[in-house]
Amino acid sequence: MKKILDLIAEQMRATFESCGYAADYGKVTLSNRPDLCEYQCNGAMAAAKAYHKKPIDIANDVAARLKKQAPAMFESVEAVMPGFINLKLSGEYLAAYLDGMRGGDKLGVEETGGGKTIIVDYGGANVAKPLHVGHLRTAIIGECIKRMGNFLGYHMIGDVHLGDWGLQMGLIIEELRDREPDLPYFDETFTGEYPQEPPFTISELEQIYPAASARSKEDEDFKARAQEATFKLQSGYAPFRAIWRHIMHVSLEDLKKNYGNLNVTFDLWKGESDAQPYIPGLIEDLQKRGLAYESEGALVVDIASPDDPKELPPCIIRKSDGAALYATSDLGTIIERERDYAPEEYIYITDKRQELHFIQVFRVAKKAGYVKPETKMTHMMCGTMNGKDGKPFKTRAGGVMRLENLIREIDEAVYDRIMENRTMDKEEAEKASRIIGLAALKYGDLSNQVSKDYVFDIDRFTSFEGNTGPYILYTIVRIKSILAKYEESLKTAQPQGSPAQAAADGGDGLPSGNICPAGSAEEKSLMLKLAAYNDVVETAFEEKAPHRLCQFIYELSDAFGSFYNTTMILKEENEEKKAGYIRLIRLVKDVLESCIHLLGFEAPERM
Q1: Kind and range of the H or E element at 329?
Q2: pLDDT, position 511
């Protein structure tokens, strides 16, 4: 289904052309003065220079012709000084457009993706470590980008890209050796099968790593042992590979549970280790082709361009001690992804502090021809989630907060708000608080621009009023309640199965038929906001801007609130008018539910 702005612009371009002007001047935008008009065309201002006419003369010419050519589309077409063309849609045309949304697939949203493959690299958790608040943004932003892309017809592949191959593995192995020296992995004479059961639980593993990390900062011998263990692991030493597999099994099980609590999923659970088979060939290839050269003992690739605004250092492919780096691993991963998926686009979502890293990786990948010149490579740089002091969010004790504890805190805050009203029993309130809490957490993050830092304010995020997740959910729940009451009134007035009831039933207990033209300013404002839905979804994805989707549903919820407060929906005596209201608010609910699904949360039945 075409976007309403495109339909209006098509008509405007045709009218400019029929008046003897270039069609390109017929661009239409949303009005920035809704008190004067709904849409606006400023093309006459630009056309005046090309045709040596006054802008108002061109605007008058086009406006007069447009009234004759499209009387059904517009309620009013007005040329105003110095040369603007102000437009208001007719109520009938707008209502018909919304009916098209109701009857269309995906509520009228076009699948513009055409099946193009896009890999989204988000999550970036390290195994053997618990998820903390620093993992929140990349996870929920990546999930939203993936969902929007799938909705628009792209083939989205989400990869968690785990940190599973670095020094932390050697630290764990050596700490485990000192704690459990009798394990067969540390017996060089052992020749049997290694145990299937891991020698630690997730809780023990999460205690082992920080202890080993702290120890390595004070004990140089231990650190050297860990480095040697890491080298042996990466060289294929069987006992350490067996421990590594245990670490991966225990960690993945826990990570999947915790990401699941965020309603975040991945298509691929790949890690740095999966890139390792490609690294020797990658380094050899870069050297053979003269792209990599030695500098102070390290192997580097120049990535600077003459038009760079600042000097960029070369990308280090291999350190002087022979170790590969994150850049090497990421390039190996790109080679693997090109082999397996050949995507048209890559999207990486990380902390903004990794900006230089991805500039280097992308440029090496393009310079070496590992990706096509036309392949788009995007780095979405996330700002940080801060406390009220403006610094990165911490626990009350000053430590990094585990993500599961943050989720628990926000759920408890929502639960307390629900119980203040005493509208639910304890069990229902606990279930609802988990649903609403997730909405509060995700919306609180996604409603901010990705690149901006924001303050995590649990009191504001869990409020049922204002620009918050709970407010959006409350709007949906309120509409559900109205629809349920209306359906019940139909059953009472016309028993189920009667000819009158069957004629009124649209298949879901609600009336068949069409949305009526707006009868008030509030109703038309709501309808105009609904009509922007497919444009907003497409723009939010193209700009990689989930906050645009959040802003849209907040404005839509507000528009519904104004309509609800000025309209006696269920008390309307004219049955056809009442049915029209019901069809309209059903569409509002469907659009809101579609949007929150893209954002990664859902609505409860009651609040």
Answers
A1: helix 326-340
A2: 63
Phi, psi (rounded to 5 degrees) for 269: -110, 55
Task: At 431, list the tokens.
Answer: 């279930």
Q: Is the pLDDT of residue 323 over 90?
A: no
- Token output for 451: 């690149």
Please name the amino acid found at residue 231.
F
Q: Are strands 39-41 and 385-386 parallel, antiparallel or unpaired?
A: unpaired
- H/E element holding 378? strand 376-382
E strand or H helix at 441: helix 426-446
* Two tokens, residue 270: 């790949």
Q: Is residue 507 over pLDDT 50?
A: no
pLDDT surpassing 60 at residue 500? no
Do the beta carbons of residue 303 and residue 367 sit within 8 Å?
Answer: yes
Map tokens 């849409």 to a residue.
Answer: 39
- Contact assessment for residue 198 and residue 249, using Cβ atoms and an 8 Å cutoff: yes
Task: Decide which of 95 and 393 is more confident.
Answer: 95
The tally of CA atoms less than 13 A away on the side-chain side of residue 283 is 20
For the chain, count helices (H), then strands (E): 21, 13
Tell me the two tokens of residue 87.
Answer: 């437009």
For residues 520 and 562, the answer to whether their CB atoms sit within 8 Å is: no
Residue 541 φ/ψ region, left for φ over 0, alpha for ψ in the -120 to 50 degree band, beta for the rest = alpha
Instruction: Return the structure tokens found at 454.
Output: 């924001």
The predicted-structure confidence for 410-445, as pLDDT tens digits, reads as follows: 999 999 999 987 778 999 999 999 999 999 999 999
On the CB side of 131, CA atoms within 13 Å amount to 28
Q: Which amino acid is at 119?
A: I
CA distance linking residue 282 with residue 569, whole number of Å: 67
- Strands 376-382 and 345-351, sheet pairing: parallel
DSSP assignment, residue 272? Answer: G
pLDDT at 509: 59
Residues in the chain: 607
Helix (H) or strand (E) holding 79: strand 74-80
Which residues are CB-neighbours of 334 under 8 A, at least 6 positions away? Answer: 346, 361, 365, 370, 371
Where in the chain are the domains? 4-89, 167-261
Say which CATH architecture domain 4-89 belongs to.
2-Layer Sandwich (3.30)
The pTM of the whole model exceeds 0.85: yes
pLDDT at 466 over 80: yes
Tokens 């903390």 label which residue?
132
Residue 172 to residue 207: CA distance in whole angstroms: 10
SS3 for 136-193 is HHHHHHHHHHHHHHHHCCCEEEEECCEECCCHHHHHHHHHHHHHCCCCHHHCCCCCCC
| β-strand partners of 84 | 80
What's the average model confidence in pLDDT over 530-551?
Answer: 98
Contact by Cβ (8 Å): 490, 607: no
